[in-house]
Amino acid sequence: TLEEEESDYFFAQVLPQIIKLALSLPEIVTGAIPLLRKHKTHSITLSQKQIASLLANAFLCTFPRRNTAKSLSEYSSFPDINFNRLFSAVGRQDNIQEKLKCLINYFRRVCSKCK
Fold it and tell me: Which domain holds residue 103?
């Protein structure tokens, strides 16, 4: 369980920075990121801030179009990008808690560089 001090720090310091990163996505990622498909040779290069902004949006579950399972959707063959499945997972609570701690630590470190 997150200690009270860690929890206070998360809500007072880290979460506002995650929100700020998420909201800055249109300025940080100015063009569409291509979907990388099987059996095609492609690569993309993203900065740490671009990745952090994308992860912030996934953490806040702001990519609803990519989570569609409709077979005609261009995203149907891709895994979910949002973290809603992680947040709503049943069982293996210790694993989920450790994954969340890892994500929070990542954001804490990245956000300390962004200030």
Answer: 4-27+45-68+75-114
